[in-house]
Design a protein that fits this description.
single chain, alpha+beta, 7-stranded mixed beta sheet, 7 strands, 34% helix, globular
């Protein structure tokens, strides 16, 4: 597996993988209108133009991706996705680590649903700590987590 910066030509594949990967999240929150499932190619192109998208590739196939947008001294991590057939193999952790190496010395922030216990576990194992909760709707709260990296990635 290799993790590299995504190219514009990768966006349709990443968007298709995102929709596949987020189906389980939609089931957890009982809402199939969540933004990762309704995002368009124009929307992911805006993400590409406004930040960094990394891709994980194995045998010439994109199997994972993560997005990062830097604003002031915070890198906002989002849409960490892994092909459902390849989950639990360390790919998500590898993508997260790759993003952290690029953004050493800044605060990192991400969020997920409070119902996503597996995702929350991955984030806390990787040094992220909850700092707030916010309602998404009347059924679900979002959990916001942060990690501050020193310049030596610790």
């Amino acid at each position: 597996m290799e993790i590299t910066k995504a190219e514009i030509r990768d966006l349709p594949s990443i968007l298709a993988l995102q929709k596949l990967a987020y189906r389980s999240e939609a089931e957890l929150v009982e809402d199939f209108s969540i933004p990762p499932l309704t995002q368009t190619l124009d929307g992911i192109t805006d993400d590409f133009n406004g930040g960094l998208i990394l891709k994980a590739v194995d045998n010439e196939k994109i199997i994972g991706s993560v997005r990062v947008r830097l604003s002031e001294n915070t890198a906002y991590i989002g849409r960490l996705i892994v092909d459902p057939e390849r989950q639990n193999q360390g790919i998500g952790t590898a993508l997260l680590s790759a993003a952290e190496k690029i953004y050493s010395g800044v605060r990192l922030e991400l969020f997920t649903s409070e119902r996503s216990s597996r995702t929350l576990s991955i984030y806390t194992k990787n040094g992220y700590a909850e700092f707030r909760r916010e309602p998404l709707n009347d059924k679900v709260n979002l959990v916001f987590l942060e990690k501050v990296l020193s310049n030596d990635n610790t």
